[in-house]
Amino acid sequence: MPASQGPPPHASSNAAEHPPAHHESSAFATDSRSKSKQRSADPSQLRKALNLTEKRSGARALVEKTREAFLLQMAIDTRKAEILKLHDRAAEKSEAVRKAETMLTRDAQKFDEFLRSSDAAAHEAIRKADEAARVSQEKATAVRQLRQKLDATKARAASNREKVQEYSRYRAFLTHITPQDWLKDQEELSKERVQQQKQQWVQSQLQQQQLQYAADLEAIDEDLREKLQDLEKKKSRGIKASAAPRKELEEKAEKRKRQLSRRLKTATDFENQFDCGCTVVSAVAQILLEMDGAVATCMNMQELEAMEKRFANTRAEMGARLEGLEAVIAQLQQQLQQQRAKCIQHREELASQEQESDASAALQKLAVHVSAIHAACGFEKEASADCLRMLEQIEARLDSHLAALAKHEGKKLTVPPNKWGPWMNPRRF
C-alpha cells in the first residue's frame, strides 16, 4: 500500500460509521448545558448531570482508545503475516537460485570433463599420427638402405663377373702356353696329394672306429658285470635264483658284441666313402655357390618389391588414418565451441534470473506498508529509519496504549513476551 493512502480503509469506514468521541462529548455537553439552563433552579440535579457527563465522556474515550489499539494491532498482525510470506517467498527464490547454481556447477564440471576427454582424444590422435609418421619414415629409410645395398651388390656382382672373365682369359692363355708334360706332372702330383689325404683320412677313421668299438665293448662288459653283481646280491639275501637269468644276460651281451662287429667298416669302405664324398662335395659346392648367388639376387629383389609394396600400403593407410584423425579433431573442436556457447548462455540466463528476482521489490513494498502504518501512528518520517526501526516504534506505541488502557481501568495489563508469537521479536526479521 503506498504511503499516500493513509490508514486502512476499514479503519476509515469504522470512523465514518462511529463519529469520534470528542464530537459526541461536545454534543452531549451542549445538550447538558441547555438542560442545565432549564433546570438552574435545582443544584443537586445539576451536580448529578455533571457527574454523569464526566463518566460517559471517560468511558467513550476509553472505548475509542481500545478500538484504535485493536485496529493498530490487527494491522500490525496483517503486515507481519505478509512479512513472513515474503520471507518464505524470498527463501524459495534463494533455494531456486541455489539449485540453479548447483546445476550450473554440475554442467561446468561435465563440460570440463568433456574438455579433458576431448584433449586426451586429440593428444592420442596426434600421438598415433606421429607414430605412424615415424613408422613410415623408418620404413622409407629401410627401403632406401635396401636399395643402396642392392645397388652395391649389383656393382660387386658386375665387378666379380668382369674379374671372372679376366681370370678365364688368363687361364686360357696360361693353359695355351703351358707344356702338356708339366700339366701331366701337376695332375699326377695332385692325384698323389689326394691319395695321401685319402690314406690319412682312412687311417684316422679306422682309429676312431677302433676306439669307439673298444669303448662300446667296455660299456657292454660293465653292464654285464653290474647285472651279475645284482644277481649275486639277491642270492646272498637268501632269494632263490636259477641259472637261466645269468645265461640270458651273457647271451644278450654276446649278441650286442656281434652286432657291433658287424657294423665295423673296412679300409675299402672308407676309401669309397672318401671318393664319393669328394665328388659329391665338389659338385654340391659348385651347385651351392651358383644357387646362393641366384637365391640371394632373387631374395633381394623379392624383399625390395615386398618392401615397396608394404611402404605404399602403409603410406595409403596412414594417409587415410590422418584424414580420419583430422576429421575427428575438427568435429571435437566444433563440439567444444558448441559447449562453450551453451555454458555462456547458461551463465547469462542465471544472471538474468538473479536480476529479475522480485525479492528486493517485495521487500521494498513491505517497507512502504510499514511506513504507512508508521505514519498512521503519528510518527514523523525519518530518512535514516529502516523497516525494523519503524516496527519497534509501532510496537512501543502499541505497548504505551495498552499500558494507558490498563491504568485507566485501574489494573495492570500483563502481556506475555511471546503472546503474539515469535514474529513479535523485530530482530527475527
What does this structure look like?
By secondary structure, the chain is mainly alpha-helical. Among the domains are: 59-178; 192-264; 357-403, no CATH class. The chain has helices spanning 9-17, 21-38, 43-177, 180-236, 244-262, 267-355, 359-376, 387-409. α4 (180-236) runs antiparallel to α5 and α4 crosses α6 (267-355). Residues 62-179 form the DUF4200 domain. Residues 245-254 have a biased composition (Basic and acidic residues). Keywords: Coiled coil. Residues 315-356 form a coiled coil.
Keywords:
disordered C terminus; disordered N terminus; DUF4200; mainly alpha; 0% strand; CFAP_domain-containing; coiled coil; 429 residues; DUF4200 domain-containing protein; elongated
**Weakly predicted, low-confidence segments:** 1-30, 34-41, 411-429
**What shape does the CA trace take?**
elongated
The average pLDDT is: 73
- Could you tell me the strand content as a percent range? under 5%
Question: From the helix content, strand content and strand pairing, which structural class follows?
Answer: mainly alpha
Query: Tally of extended strands?
Result: 0
Distance between the termini: 20 Å
Q: What is the count of helical runs?
A: 8
InterPro entries: CFAP_domain-containing, DUF4200
Protein name: DUF4200 domain-containing protein
Keywords: Coiled coil
Pfam family, one: DUF4200
Helices and strands, with pairings:
Elements lengths: L8 H9 L3 H18 L4 H135 L2 H57 L7 H19 L4 H89 L3 H18 L10 H23 L20
Helix pairs in contact: 2-3, 3-6, 3-7, 3-8, 4-5, 4-6, 7-8
Characterize this entry briefly:
By secondary structure, the chain is an all-alpha fold. It is 86% helix and 0% strand. It is built from 8 helices and no strands.
